[in-house]
Specification:
Blueprint: E1 8-12, E2 21-27, H1 33-39, H2 45-52, E3 59-63, E4 66-73, E5 86-92, E6 96-101, H3 106-116, H4 124-156, H5 162-195, H6 203-269, H7 284-305
Parallel strand pairs: 2-6
Antiparallel strand pairs: 1-2, 3-4, 4-5, 5-6
Helix pairs in contact: 1-2, 3-4, 4-5, 4-6, 5-6, 6-7
Length: 309
């Protein structure tokens, strides 16, 4: 059901069934949100303040018979990078789930669609497991895409230009860092929730939440692996640049080594002073030119012999 105040209440389970509860879904359009949470839903001031605070880093805060839970999921709004993860803030107890989000999240939208089809989770514990599982599925899809992007970069690193690769690797590493910043604390938040004992959360729920935590742990490890592999590719680019610079410097050194003695000879013969030999000899210019060519050839042979090149 949806009221005129913007608060949408949806049933979890069938009325009268054990564990039947209500899901209140709120967004930024609810007027006087803090007051509505207290007066119309019945949360205390601490819970209402926690749901509406600006800081939304993943965390779990057990409070009385329920828990305050901040989770992060993939951003599904058009034109937004998926790694810019958005938050959903939850209050969960045995009778109700209160969720608040500013941006769209596919996992929440899927649960809304299921509820409207009559296939909603039957209790708050089932709701929590289903939501965290769907959020983790979406995160896994994005991380797999990052892994595929890195594999493509590894395959073409010999072919693409260094500036193009460097930009792509830097962008990928930034995405990995941003995602890991939220995913690792999310694992810790769920660990705290599993450790708490509530009547509405059974051992089955704890086991399924433990499976979600294991998946998140593997995703964190995969992000670490992607970050390390990206650093290796970046190191390879640095080596490519250094090798290219070394070859250029070597070529300049060889050119300098060959032409420096020749420049010395031509400079001495070009002095406009008396006594320079050959000034009166017709064949002196050609003799000196052939001598310079022969000397340059000897220097090249010497460099080749020493394997400097």
């Amino acid at each position: 059901m949806s009221g005129g105040d913007g608060i949408e209440g949806m049933a979890l389970g069938r009325p009268g069934d054990p564990g039947a509860a209500t899901w209140f879904r709120l967004d930024k359009d609810v007027p006087n949100l803090h007051e509505a949470l207290r007066t119309k839903i019945g949360l205390d001031d601490l819970s209402a303040k926690s749901l509406t605070e600006v800081e939304t880093r993943p965390r779990c805060f057990p409070h009385e018979k329920g828990a305050l839970l901040n989770l992060r999921g993939i951003n599904t709004e058009p034109g937004i990078d998926p790694e810019d993860m958005v938050s959903v803030r939850l209050w969960i107890d045995g009778e109700r789930v209160v969720s608040y989000q500013v941006h769209k999240m596919a996992a929440v939208d899927e649960l809304v669609a299921e509820q409207r089809r009559g296939a909603a989770p039957s209790s708050t514990g089932d709701f929590l497991v289903s939501l965290t599982d769907r959020i983790t599925d979406r995160i896994h899809e994005v991380i797999e895409e990052l892994d595929d992007d890195l594999e493509n970069l590894e395959d073409v690193q010999e072919e693409k230009s260094v500036p193009e690769l460097r930009h792509a690797i830097a962008d990928l590493r930034k995405k990995v860092v941003v995602m890991r910043r939220f995913i690792a604390p999310q694992r810790d938040a769920l660990d705290v929730l599993i450790a708490e004992r509530y009547p509405w959360k059974t051992k089955v729920h704890d086991r399924r939440l433990g499976d979600v935590v294991d998946r998140i742990t593997r995703l964190v490890e995969q992000l670490d692996s992607i970050h390390t592999r990206a650093a290796i590719v970046q190191d390879f680019l640095s080596v490519r640049v250094a090798e290219r610079l070394n070859r250029t410097m070597l070529l300049l050194s060889i050119v300098t080594g060959v032409f420096l003695p020749l420049s010395l000879i031509t400079g001495m013969l070009g002095m406009n002073v008396a006594g320079i030999p050959g000034t009166q000899t017709p064949w002196a210019f050609w003799s000196v030119s052939l001598g310079i060519v022969f000397l340059g050839f000897l220097e090249f042979l010497l460099i080749w012999r020493l394997r400097i090149t």
